[in-house]
From TrEMBL:
This is Nuclear transport factor 2 family protein. Transmembrane segments: none annotated. It comes from Streptomyces klenkii. It comes from the Bacteria. Residues 12-105 form the SnoaL-like domain.
């Protein structure tokens, strides 16, 4: 028997996998046509979205979730993005989930400290 995850469960698994660097699990959560728009760029399709997550994953230390709100297929996660190049960055992530797969992601945060930290690292 196959059980489809709820949108909330999908979001929880997404953030747990990303924080752990478990990109196989993360890839399995993304719909082939996932559409990502965020403060650092955009991505169309699962492979492009995964590449972006892997890129930021190189400096990711922790995802400190403050709140998660789910209503139907929509989930908003409010968290501090903790990296080794910048102070914790308050971040809002909204995702839409269809049949256990993430189809749309929108992320917003002030990227200035993170960009400065990435620049200093190079």
């Amino acid at each position: 028997m196959t059980t489809t995850r709820t949108a909330r469960e999908t979001a929880e698994t997404y953030f747990t996998a990303w924080e752990a660097g478990d990109f196989d699990t993360l890839r399995g959560l993304l719909a082939e046509n996932v559409d990502f728009v965020g403060a650092l760029g955009t991505a169309s399709g699962a492979e492009a979205a995964l590449a972006g997550l892997k890129g930021l994953g190189q400096v990711l230390k922790k995802i400190d979730v403050k709140a998660r709100v789910a209503e139907g297929d929509e989930v908003i996660t409010w968290f501090d993005l903790c990296t080794n190049v910048a102070p914790p960055t308050p971040t809002a992530n909204w995702m839409h989930v269809d049949d256990g797969k993430v189809t749309r992601i929108r992320v917003t945060f002030d990227p200035r400290a993170l960009l400065a930290g990435l620049e200093a690292q190079n």
